[in-house]
Design goal:
Distance between the termini: 5 Å
Number of strands: 8
Largest sheet: 5 strands, antiparallel
Strand order of the largest sheet: 1-8-7-6-5
Order of helices and strands: EEEEEEEE
Radius of gyration: 13 Å
Strand content: over 45%
Mean pLDDT: 94
Shape: globular
Structural class: mainly beta
Low-confidence stretches: none
Length: 86
């Protein structure tokens, strides 16, 4: 089931200088660490002058939609899913 939420989270970002790519490596939410096993869609949008990066990622047991605010460098968790049908 997919659930919309809005919660600040800790995200470890990995940057590969040779490939010039950056992506989330793990998410810490509610005291648990979820290593990212798959990166899905990445897109960005502007709201006023603020640029937001949106990552759809998955760990072994959960799906996360993460939003990175480039003005304050904060991560926000907008959506979670556990793979179960409604």
């Amino acid at each position: 089931m997919i659930q919309k939420i809005s919660a600040p989270v800790t995200v470890t970002l990995i940057f590969n200088h040779k490939k010039r790519i950056a992506f989330p490596g793990e998410v810490v939410w509610e005291g648990r660490t979820y290593p990212i096993t798959k990166i899905g869609l990445h897109h960005f949008y502007r709201q006023g002058r603020t640029l937001y990066h949106v990552f759809s990622v998955a760990s072994q047991e959960m799906f996360f939609r993460l939003v990175f605010n480039t003005d304050n460098l904060f991560w926000n968790l907008e959506e979670i899913g556990d793979g179960e049908a409604d």
